[in-house]
Structure formats: structure tokens, C-alpha cells
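Sample 3 of the quickstart, ligand zinc ion:
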Amino acid sequence: FFKQKTAYEIRPRDWSSDVCSSDLDTGAPARRGFALVVSPLISLMKDQVDGLRVDGVDAAYLNSTQTPDERDAVMASLRADRCRLLYVSPERLVGEGSQGFRRFLARCGVRFIAIDEAHCISQWGHDFRPEYRQLGQLRDDFPGASFHAFTATATERVRHDIVHELKLRDGLVLVGSFDRPNLTYRVLRRGTLRKQLETILARHEGESGIVYCGSRREVEELAEWLRGEGHEALPYHAGLPDEVRAAHQEAFLDERADIIVATVAFGMGIDRSNVRFVIHASAPRSPEHYQQEAGRAGRDGLPAECVLIYSGADFVRWRQMLEQNGEFTDSTKALLRDMERYAAGTRCRHRSLVEYFGEPWARGECGACDWCLKELDGVADSTTVARKILSCVARVRQNYGLAHVADVLIGKANDKVVALGHAELSTFGLLKSEPPAAVRGYIEQLVAGGWLAREGEPYPVLKLTPAGAALLKGEGECELYRELQPVKGKSRTRGQGSTVFEGDPELFDVLRAVRTKLARERGVPPYVIFHDTTLKHLAERRPATLDDLHDIYGVGAKKAADFGDAFLDAIRTHRKPL
Ligand code: ZN
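Result:
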């Protein structure tokens, strides 16, 4: 399972030659066969296939967006053994009445089957799709094909499910690193959202990014506000007509729009490499969602920033939504709790995410999260503050929720507190000098750190965990922070990516224009021509000949032949800075 798989990585290297040799003995004309890629991302198939074709691979797709004529042409290329890689959706492959289609594919010689977004097969994954469960039957229809499953986000449990459900024989599980060192993670407690957004966007002038929101209404409002502020921002959500949505996605991919404001409906498989920031204006429903959505930043390996802006209300809203849809199961509940733990977490964000996916953390301080950059306002004497809170939880007999415990601690003599006699407790008003939001924040941090637990449905109450009981008795220490805001006056590090651009920025812009022109001519998104990293290398190294191009990152023989001259000309005619 590769962290950032692309269509290129799932292309098998030498399989066609292997297949040829085994068929030669029969005396029949050897079929080279093809690789079948099962992908739920119908809207992206065309781009993926276009990208492969630019790279010289005979690729095609079959889905419901095509006309019967277009589909016939693809079927003919399969019959004639001219297609090397075919994308199909799971519905087409295992849906009702698909048996004939599978028989047809088998006759055309399926050698290799790749299941993309394979986490969809597991109910412990974050995007369970029942039709994915039926993919296991492919094993019977294509006994000779090798099976491969790919996902960017799978915990150990999900990986086990994938192997099991797909009936992989003696499966080899490859886990890439979940660590994305070029991303800087920050978490903010939601205050005045627009002010918070302004601060973040000021760090990214002229750069592109995605803002995820919890509701369609919020998407529309924020997109409009951002346009008023002079940003090229477009909305994207499931309530927009298909053609508007497609047009907005395209504008973002073609770099005509800088910012997409979207609900989570946006971006499965989005492959724009120079996304410099991903902001969540509310919390997603699982760390998997967060990793996947935030992971759309910085795919070119250059520094990018991911900010989660959340409040406790986000989790209440998710809970209600899941309950309404009958999806509030043990697994979704656990994922939601894990997300809450990340948001209120009191340690390195990189480490939290990496360990969540079961990978050991080997680096020390990451140098690229709010926690390690020391942007958070640490609370003096945190352990004492924590003990006051834990003791209050004990005083109310571990029988009340977060809001009530916070009220007692700040000394709020409301009806409930008075009626229960909690205004008489020794812990009443122990933290009255602290802002109420800060006290609620400390309690969330103690939950996230495992000193307190929230238990019970539907009104969870606070309980001491064994670690919490020990801390209360004077064993151990803990660190709390006051507010999740970057400390004023600190340098705004834009990540610690190792790649620092040392070329001529004007030349880089010239090369971008060349890329845009080539992309428009071919009707493909710019990144299909070259990623930003490649353009940066070109601007730094200023290659003079086609031969020099071989040393440039991301330039293969086919691309050098197709696009080399256009870029070399631009470099030649651009005056070298003195
Ligand atoms: Zn860190």
C-alpha cells in the first residue's frame, strides 16, 4: 500500500514480457493481455487515462459517462489486444448483470488486477462501499491474474480486512510511510473563523489551496466572502448541478482558480500537485478522512500547510448526522473519538498521525507542527491545573459531563450546579481565574491524553482512567496549553521541506506558462505535462540540450521527446539574471 500512489505506480513493469513467453509454446498468437484497474473515481478516470497516454501507455476506461460508440471502440481495442491498462468502476465489474462483461474481459486476457481505494472494502475503513465486498468473487473469474490492492489510508485492521475480503493468497502487505515531512500541521480551536482564515491565507499569497467546510451553506458563504477579499475562490458541493461542479473542479485543476471551498465531496483522488494549504473549517469524521484530505497538500514534495480549525460542536454534529443515517456503529463511533483525540492532542501532530496508522515514530521533534514549533501557549504548572480538574471529576463522583465539570471549576453557580449541591464542593471555583473556554480545552486535552475518559450514551460522563487516578495521587506529570493559537511574533515557518527553490522565479513563471499552453492544446490538466517540482528543477538547472533533460526529475524519454523543445526554447530565450 503506497502512501501516495498514482496511476504510474500501479503500472506493472515487466508483466507483458512474462506473459508473452508463457504463451509462445501453445503455437497460438500470443496475447499480451492487459491490467484491469478497479476504481470508484469515475470523474477522474479520464484524467488518469489522459496522463498515462501522455506517458505513452495504451490506457482506456469504461464507464457510464461514455457514449455507446466510445465504449464500443474501447471493447474493440481490448479484443484486438491493443489495450494495456483498463479502468472500470466496481459497479460495472460486479454489479447486476455484469457476468457477461467479466467473461468478455477474461477472454481478452486480464493478467493483473489492481483495486484502487481498497479501504472501501472494510467497514473499519472510512468510506465503506458494500459493492466493494463483492470484488472477492473476481478471484474465481480470473484465477490466473495477480491481485493488487492500493490505498493511501488503512489502519492495521483495514489492511487485514482487505487481504481477507479479496481472498488474496499468501498476500504480501507493503506499508509505505504515512509520514509527510513537508507538511506543517496546525490545529486551532474555532474562534472568529474568518479572522483565522485571513491569518492563514496571508501566509499563502498567490498560492492555491482547499478549504473544507461542514455544510453546503458554509461552503457558499465562505466562497463568496473569499471572492470579495480578492481570491479566485469557487464553491464545490453535492448540491450544485453536475456541470457546475465539473467546471469548478476543472478550473482548479487547470490553475484558473486558486481556492476551492468544498464539502468533503470534493477531491477523492485530486491530483493537483502544487496545493500549498488545506484548511479544515470544521473537523472531519475520522483521522483517515483527515489524512486523506490534508494529504492533498504538497504532493510535489515542497512545503505546504494543513490547518484543522475545530470546535467540540463538530463532533456533536457528526454524531447526529451518523445517527440519522443509521450509521452510528461501533466503528464510526471509534473513528470519531480518534479524530477528537487528534484535535485536542497534546503532542506532535506528525507523530500522532503516523502512530495512528500503526507505524512506529522514528524522528524526534518534527519541526513542522504547532506543538514542535512551540507555537502553543503552554500553561505554567500544568500538572497542578490537571490535578484540580481530576479532583473535581472525582468530587462529582464521575457522574457528570464535560460542560458541568467545567462550570463547577470556573465557579459558575447556575441552577444545576446549585441544585446538586456542587457549589459547596471544595473544587468549586478552583479555576475561576481561567477563561471558561480554556478550562473546557484543558478537559478535552486530558481526555485526548488518556487521563480522563468520556463514557456512556447518549450523555457521556467524565471518568478517571488509571493514568488519571495515578496523576491525581501525585504520580507523573502532564502538559497543557492554553489556546490553540500561534504565538504572536513567532516566525511563521512554512514547513521544513528539504527542497528550497534556488532558481530564477521569473523563469519558473515562464515555464509555467509554457506548461499551461501545452496542457490547453492537449486538453489535459497542467500537472499531467510536468509537476511543479520538475519546473523548479528546470528553472534551477537550466538544461540546454535534450540530453541534459534526462537528469531532470520527472522527465522520461517520452516526455522529453514530446515537450523538451518547448521548454528548452523558453529557457534559452529567458535572459539569465545577473
Ligand atoms: Zn511535531
